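I am still learning, so would you mind making up any protein sequence you like and the tokens describing how it folds?
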Amino acid sequence: MHNSETISNEKEELKGAVLNARPFKPLYVKFKVFYGCNLKCEMCNHWRETREAPVTPERLKEVITELAEMGTKKIHISGGEPMLRPHIPDFVELASSLGIKVTMTTNGTLITKEKAKQLVEAGLRGVNISIDSPIRKMHEKIRGVEGAFKLTTKAVGFFRRYKHKGKLNIRINTVVSRTNYESLAALPDLAHELGADGINLIPVDDHCGEILSMRKKDIEKFNNEIAPRIAERALELGLIVSDEDAFPFGRDESEVRLGRAGRYAFGFYEKHPCYAPWSHTLIDFNGNVYVCCMTREKIPPLGNIVHQSFKEVWEGDAYRQVRLKMHPPVLKPCQRCDDFIEENKKIWETIGPY
């Protein structure tokens, strides 16, 4: 969401847009290009459900071109599993040719040496690969498919092989849940061994139910025994920038209480706005447009790119109504979100309070 150069150079325009609920620029756009998945992760419903066909590649290319004209600086491709669509390198190449940075999240199991090379040469600049435990059996228990660990770790190696062809950043995404938290102390060592540039610990979402959600005693054990070891080793290896990154459920008593309830923003949005409606958007596999992942399926779509230009949606009344509601306290789903807090803090510091 945060593009420091644009925010700094156009801070008065952004501030005016925020104060008057007008659109700014879709600096960061997430595309969920496919709903289905080839794995059966215990914390996810994508493999359990069948949805309608995704937006055609031709229409997505038209939208990418439109976004470039509107000032988009970054596109993130995700799913489901995006590599189930054969057109991903084409999307990456087009966006890169238009000056847009492209990143992607994948489970890695469909990445071959040839596909990794093709994606990097097309201009992919960041890839998040999901590994839920440094222990093979644990990862495969969570992912629901035998052999997934080998395929995923090989994918990291394939991307590492072609890093020299571009400025590619490789990061390991790990969802921390009751199932796997006790196995994660060695995660930094695995990431380093594979050649990753960073790790990202993601707290399990509260929609996953009581079986996966972290109880108070689980968070206490994780914070006292596991997270400090992750923090020390990950900082030593340059895989995180702060020890806070190893504590996704919070550290002090008040944060842990909120984290136990799935409120991973830790109260930040009670007093601060989220600037996502002015600088971010999510385009779903079926063309529906939302502010972000947290509002997807929580509020109605703001428009649909199959029937409208993206500009019509971005400047439409539905988006304006969301912007009007984004001043503190913000929308209820935002209390569960930790995605943009650091970016929002930087924007707040840049444009000043209002």
Observations:
- The beta strands are 28-32, 74-78, 101-106, 124-130, 169-176, 198-203, 280-283, 288-290, 303-304.
- The mean pLDDT is 93.
